[in-house]
Amino acid sequence: MSFLSYSFFLFLFIVFVSYYIVPIKKQWIVLLIFSILFYVFESNILYILISGISTYLISLWIEKESSSKKNQKKLIIGISLNMILLLTLKYNLLKEMIGRSILIPLGISYYTLSSISYLVDIYQKKIKTNGFFRFFLSISFFPTLILGPINRYQKIEKTLFQNHSFHLQNVIDGSLRILYGIFKKLVIADSIYLIVNFIVTEKIGGIIPIFGLLLYGIQIYADFSSGMDIVLGFSKMLQIDLEENFNTPYFSKSLSEFWNRWHMTLTNWFKDYVYIPLGGNRTTTWKRNQNIFLVFLLSGLWHGFTWNFLLWGMLNGIFLILEKTCSYHPKSNLAILKNYIVVCLLWIFFMYPDLESIISIFHASKFTLPFFEIMSPAAYLVLIISIFFFIFVEYQKYQKKTFSFLGRNRDYILLLLFIFTIILFGNYGFSFNKAEFIYSRF
Amino acid sequence: MKRLGFYLLLFLLLFLGIQRLVVPKYQEELVEGSMTREYYKEDKNHQILFLGDCEVYSSYSPITLFNEFGYTSYIRGNSQQTLAASYYILKETLHYEIPKIVIFSVNDLRYGKEYEKESYHRLLLDNMKNSFIKYDLIESFKVEGETFLSYLFPIFRYHSRIFQLTKEDFKYYFKTKPITHNGYLMRVDSVPVTTIYQGKPLSNYTFEEKNMEYLEKIRKLCEENNIELILVKSPSTYPYWYEEYEKQVEEYAFHNHLTYLNFYDKKEEIGLDYQEDTYDAGLHLNVSGAEKLTRYLGLYLKENDSLEDMRNNETIALKYKEKTAYYEEMKQEQYEELKKYGKITMYGGKE
Q1: Per the CB < 8 Å rule, is B160 touching A431?
Q2: Cα–Cα 20 to 30 A to B283, which of A179, A239, B143, B225?
Q3: Is the pLDDT of residue A351 over 70?
Q4: Which CATH number fits domain B24-194+203-341: 3.40.50.10420, 3.40.50.1400, 3.40.50.1110, 3.40.50.1820?
């Protein structure tokens, strides 16, 4: 069930109605039931059950013991179990071992990290076990299974299990965010996809791949953040405040700032559960650099077990070490542009499917892009206006401003604007090729 | 609350207004999508209903049938109309009127999965009134990528036409003109038949089971409503009508006591001249061919059925007088166009 299918929105509607008609103390049970149903329809529930049950049992086992040494062993067992499941299922190691491949379970990259954080937080006594089903909902909350964000029990416990009564304004705010997400996906990301996909599949060389990368930077952000808008918008309608994944990342002046604003739940997870336990900043420069490098290497591998992601992670790590070593903290606004170019150049490992394709740019025989064969001039105009609007919204967020200039009718005007822009200019329907969310494959 | 009401109303107006703009009008370049719509504007008192694909809407002229025999009729045919579509259209028609005779074109029986195309479904359904019959029809022949919602709200299908709007979209935004004459799509131009095609051998000549099931449903529906069902095959020279097809239809008609008329075999009696009477070298009859075939059919009905001559009914006669005037006016207009440009540019003639 794609985020942008009619059936998904029908499912959301049923969940929404059910959520508000049951007694408020049972609301989380509604979410649990629908999350299980969603999982059963979409994937094999066996693996998330194994991961969930084992994690919860080991957490109970850890809680029983006061000795930190003994608990460390239990923690290692718990983490290892989750990692083994992730490695064998996501990276298809099972195929290497027994010659049989298994469909990657939905959301395994996200719920494995959630489970590990739960184990570590229990071990560090930051949280206490509070029933298996509550924990299971925290790792399987259905909107977060496709694109995240990575839920940490400690952070969502309060909002997920609180009682929520119906508030129209939350529904309007949530709907606006969902529509803004769909606008970014169907009008911006999927239009750019047509251009970028042409550059990649037609193996166009020269200056065009650079142009493609600058566009891809917008595409991947519009695409990924649109998914987040749908997840967070729907959660907002249920009055559940999940963690944000982005904070105007392209307004960063350095790569280290970018990583504090991009895919924040993943970055923070690596910071809290890998970087800090390894010593973090409170160690020698050499050790700190080693830790940064390791974190980005793992982050690259989290995206996929390929040379592309490995190199992408390594290069990000190296650039970040260089920035730290040179104490690079630029003040000028030009640094925003420079940083955008660096980030986009690194997206080359995402834009092209493998290293061979990247190398093939240098042996290309085509060097021009037949713009108007890909889209009509009017469609380009819509895309350009939409990108400017996207940048404007980002800038408003960066400046911490809202659209207050639209006055009392702001919400209604924006709702109408998004609905009709999506309906008229969105890339959807019978004659369009559907582009899946980029991050749904990770 | 007032504000919410205002914006809801604004949304509805914009939605319907924009939808009207982007949905094709089927008035000049591609006119076949108008056929379903035009039936609803008709008085529903026809004695004969024609059902089928292009072989019915190009082969029979209800105006001629009335003027020469006094029989009222309507053609509910669409391009590549499948058996399922014919069945549901018949069902819908019976909701409005019960004709005495249904004349069904057996050419539809040839259609297999390869003929089920979204573009043809659109021509048929874009202007069909919303009803459970329409929803059943959509579900019965939806192909991959087609969604129910896009039939309910065609803006979801045609939204990208916003970049391809033509004068036609604005000219016919509020009002459309009639394209057919009781479902008959007129063409006066002619392209002579140069080759009579012989069919290539097929691996399987048996009509699809689904088609036969729907034919049976059509038969039963007619039986339940005391309607005489007549099966016909129009005199097209291609696509080739195999002997094996003919046998299956004859057998079905024999077992179910139905009349089956294959007009291809009767071209001499009808007086058809393939050098003059088709507009695309043998596939579709032009107006001259259609009038000849209609006269032949009218004579058959006069001899074999006891349909009332409605020319004595003043109201109906007056209505058909107006229809005849429009029929002749269009004929004249097309002849003039043909003289001026050497081809028909309107009414679907622009290719």
Answers
A1: yes
A2: B143
A3: yes
A4: 3.40.50.1110
